[in-house]
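1st attempt posting a full record on here, be nice pls
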Amino acid sequence: MLKILDCTLRDGGNVVGKGFDANLTSMMLKALIDCNVDYIEMGNSGGIGAYEVAGFTKAETDEKYLELMQPYAATGKVGMFLNAKRYRQKYVELAAANHLAFLRVGVDADEPDLAIEPIKVIKKNGMKAFYSAMKAYIVSPEELAESAKKLEAAGLDEFTIMDSAGCMLPDEVEKTVELLTKSVSIPIAFHCHNNLALSAANALAAYRGGASVLDGGLMGMARSAGNLPTEAGIAVLQKYGELKHINLYSLLQFINDDLEPIMKKDHDYHNPITPFDLVLGITGLHSSKSALFKKVAAETGVNLYQLMVHTAVIDRKNPSEDLIRKVAGEIKA
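the predicted structure (as tokens):
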């Protein structure tokens, strides 16, 4: 079963400094858990320990982030990043004591040996050990496969190919993922950046290559040009029959009603693909009908996105107001 790892609360923290404040962190954690997203990577953008070791203090402390995730610790979904060059055993022990489900060790793809000791200590402390091959494109796919074999032997649970600069092309992504899935038995994940506007295309390529996990960030939030928008990745893959366990429309409602307004007001962040525009893409409805759908949804009190989806099943070319109102009535009934 394909899974999503949402890393808004880690990589997305670069949008506001080095991490989100307590209010935004709590908001997003609750929404992601409520919508049944598979994994959530949270905390300081530089990973656990970066506040102290690297001076990444434009964020909450590690202890504060760990406190905020306690209501969700039992879900087994929440973890943090750990840069291998900032590894200290005490950070692994802190994570384990606060019931994190995983730590994802990251290091440049040509330095995998730096991850071996952290992986072993993570496993010894009872957590899952994930790995990110950062700047995966600086080595050959064959070298990545050898790294994956070595780290799997050390106890690794998941290997992420990280396109850190968003420079990889879909055919390259598919071939690399396919090679790694044939080389090891652990899940292969892919982390897309959007510098060439290929994050969704690369996510699809990774899926076709056999990836088990796709990374994303709400509204695409991440460093530089951003990540694959989590909601767009879910929408695309649901068209292929995947990720049906995630409540996409509740997630879109949260983005529209809560996240998008506060990010625009407090941080001048503009969502590149609004929930409404994403639903147009999901349904095939034309934007010329936008005002009509919004009007009927507001007057009848039905969920706008649900109304659009149900109407499009009947007529996505030119739905009349009568049809839209009829569908709204059926939804309310």
